[in-house]
Write a structure and sequence with these properties.
The protein is an alpha/beta fold. The chain has one domain: Rossmann fold. It is 39% helix and 18% strand. It has eleven helices and eight strands. It has an eight-stranded mixed β-sheet, with helices on both faces.
């Protein structure tokens, strides 16, 4: 690259010409998630909200077991690891010790809706004043692609090679609708991060959740429906298409509870 080209590039990337730049709250460590995974985008929008609110030094994240456990490598904030499924219990302790801190959990569906069901339900029912970010890809992603509570009926996994049989394995668990019914939840929504429009909506929901926490309104719960192209055995583009065609009809995007009131407002245009 010659000097002239360098000068042109320097001019293009001047501060006033930048449309987007990476938030400093994401570390310089290269994301280790599978190509096409939604975790990286979810990380980014959470860190952007914290950055824009100016609350880096006042925020504590809790990440348990699963792909979520990698979050502390990429988020430049105070993080606490929790045992599998126990993130809401750990977050409860942190928030009660430091009520002025912004506290959030970052959990997958196998963690939150299986081994952590009790911790999730009771934290929501008590109305603990923190935020739960719930990544739902309908499968156990890190441990080998096993069936999770959120696995769709007929959906194949490493433990359901012929598809989930509801007669044998029960129905998929809509944990987000379930917690929305509890009196302690103030804001409950479901989003995705697979298109620019959906990313903006998800980020707006994350911002609202943190603002609610500042106002001591109780628990905010945000589900992000994502893909798991490695667990689903699909390339990223196909996985996103499969998600739109199969996950969204069962897990519709939109607001479910706002300001403590059920609204069940779903997006007609979800991609």
């Amino acid at each position: 690259m010659n000097i002239k080209t360098n000068n042109i590039l320097d001019e293009i990337i001047r501060e006033e010409n930048l449309v987007y730049k990476k938030t400093s709250l994401m570390t310089d460590k290269i994301l280790s998630y599978c190509p096409g995974c939604g975790h990286g985008v979810a990380h980014r929008i959470i860190m952007e909200v914290i950055d824009e609110m100016g609350i880096q030094s006042d925020t504590i994240g809790v990440a348990p077991v699963g792909c979520s456990v990698l979050a502390y490598e990429f988020m430049n904030i105070d993080m606490q690891q929790a045992a599998h499924g126990r993130a809401p219990a750990v977050a409860t302790g942190i928030k009660r010790c430091w009520p002025d801190k912004y506290v959030f959990t970052y959990q997958g569906d196998g963690d939150l809706a299986a081994i952590g069901t009790a911790e999730t339900i009771h934290a929501c029912n008590r109305g603990e004043n923190f935020t739960i970010i719930f990544i739902n890809n309908g499968i156990y992603g890190m441990t080998g692609g096993q069936m999770a509570p959120t696995t769709l009926a007929g959906m194949k996994s490493s433990t359901t090679p012929y598809g989930r049989d509801v007669a044998l394995m029960g129905n998929p668990l809509k944990i987000t609708e379930l917690v929305a019914m509890l009196p302690g939840t103030y804001f409950v929504a479901r989003h995705s991060v697979h298109t620019p429009l959906n990313v903006r909506k998800a980020k707006k929901a994350v911002r609202m959740a943190f603002e609610n926490q500042k106002l001591n309104k109780g628990l905010s719960f945000i589900e992000i429906v994502s893909n798991c192209n490695s667990g689903w055995k699909m390339p990223p583009v196909q996985a996103n298409r499969w998600m739109e065609e199969n996950m969204f009809p069962f897990y519709p995007l939109g607001d479910i509870k706002v300001n403590g009131e059920l609204v069940q407002k779903t997006d007609k245009k979800q991609n």
